[in-house]
Amino acid sequence: MNCECKEQEKRKYYQYYDTPDGCDVFKKVLVTSRYGAIAGLILSTYDVLMYSHAIGLRQIMKRYSFHTVPLVLMGATFAGVANGVQHFRAKDDIFNYFIGGVACGPILAYYLGSYHAVLLGGLGLGVIGMIKKNAIENNYTLFPLVQGHMGTVRSWRNDYTFSPDPRDSLQHTCGSDK
C-alpha cells in the first residue's frame, strides 16, 4: 500500500481524502467523528429547541448526548472498520466501504431503538458507502456545490446596484474656503 501524499494546497485542517485509504487511519477516524459531532450537535439543537423542549441542564445534556454520541461513534466505526478491512484484505475497492457501513448497523439500531436497523440500516449504510467510494474512484460529485445568487455572509459589503449613486461623485464643498 502506497501512503505517499500528493501535493495538496496548504490548509490548517485534514480532510478524509487527503491521503489514500489505509493511510493515516487515526486522522481519518477523527475526521469522520468530527462530521458525526457536527451533525449530532445540529440535530440535538433542533431536538431541544423544537421537539422535546427539554428544561434544565441535565435534560438538555441528555438530549445532546442521545443524538451526538451515536453519530460520533458511527463515524469513527466506519473509518476504523473500512481502513482496517483494507489492511486485512490488502485491496482497495468498494467492498471495504460496504463492510464499514454494515459495521455501523448495530449503533444505528441502538440509536433508533429498533432491532430491524441492525440488518436493514447496516445494509443501507453499506450501500451508501459503496456509492460514495464509487463516486470518489470515478471522480464525480454526488452533491454539487450550488452558488447562491447573493454570495456569502460578507456579501453585504458588495455593491449590487445597477448604477452608482450620483451623490458619491459630487464634490463636497461644505466647510472649505473657495
What this model shows, in words?
58% of the residues lie in helices and 0% in strands. α1 (25-51) runs antiparallel to α2 (57-89), α2 (57-89) runs antiparallel to α3 (94-103) and α2 (57-89) runs antiparallel to α4 (105-112). It has 178 residues and is mainly alpha-helical. The protein has helices at residues 25-51, 57-89, 94-103, 105-112, 116-137, 166-169.
List the helices and strands and how they pair.
Layout lengths: L24 H27 L5 H33 L4 H10 L1 H8 L3 H22 L28 H4 L9
> Between the first and last Cα atoms, what is the distance in angstroms?
80 Å
The helix fraction, in percent, is 55-70%
Strand content: under 5%
Overall pLDDT level = 86
Helix run count: 6
Structural class: mainly alpha
The main sheet comes to: none
Brief write-up:
Helices cover 58% and strands 0% of the residues.
Tags for this entry?
single chain, 178 residues, mainly alpha, 6 helices
